[in-house]
Amino acid sequence: MKKAIAALFLLAVVFAATSVLGQEKTEVITVKSAEVNNRVVIVTVQGAGTRFELQCNEGLPACSTLQPGTYVMVRLPRNWAMYQCANVQVYRAQAVPENLGEKLGEYCLIEK
Q1: What is the per-residue pLDDT across 78-87, written as a single tens digit (0 to 9) for each?
Q2: Over the stretch 66-105, which tens digit does the pLDDT of each residue have?
Q3: Rounded distance between C-alpha atoms, residue 22 and residue 27, angstroms
Q4: Torsion angle in degrees (nearest 10) through CA of 75, 81, 83, 89
Q5: Closest CA to 59 of 81, 87, 38
Q6: What distance in Å separates the CA atoms of residue 61 and residue 27, rounded to the nearest whole number?
Q7: Distance of alpha carbon 98 from alpha carbon 13, whole angstroms
Q8: How far apart are CA 112 and CA 106, in angstroms?
């Protein structure tokens, strides 16, 4: 009986995680510039006709200063990751879009 309840609980957790991850939105972005100001990495980005910033705290493992170029950005549900904001993850632009590869960084999306 306990195994059946544990299996149902595990199934519910997997289903909930799949539902949340299914809300991710992937888009191609172009990094225009990046700078560090008061230990905050600020990346200026162009994507889908709008310009915005990605910010992260310098020194954290998932924070990197991106070089200008083309990347893939995944929008995560609000407050889903490290920052209490609209979180995004950035990956190298790949020839095969289904394979995102290694995550380059995790940022807070600041729309202007």
Answers
A1: 767 777 788 9
A2: 999 999 999 998 767 777 788 999 999 876 566 778 899 9
A3: 14
A4: -40
A5: 38
A6: 23
A7: 24
A8: 19
pTM (predicted TM-score): 0.73
- The radius of gyration of the chain's CA atoms, rounded to the nearest angstrom, is 17
CA separation (Å) from 46 to 25, 37, 56? 16, 20, 17
The amino acid sitting at 30 is T
Q: What is the pLDDT of residues 27-50, one digit of tens each?
A: 999 999 999 999 999 999 999 889
Under DSSP, the state recorded for 49 is T
Provide the phi-psi class of 82: left if phi over 0, else alpha when psi is between -120 and 50, else beta.
Answer: alpha
Three-state DSSP class for residue 63:
coil
Task: For residue 86, give both structure tokens.
Answer: 């609209």
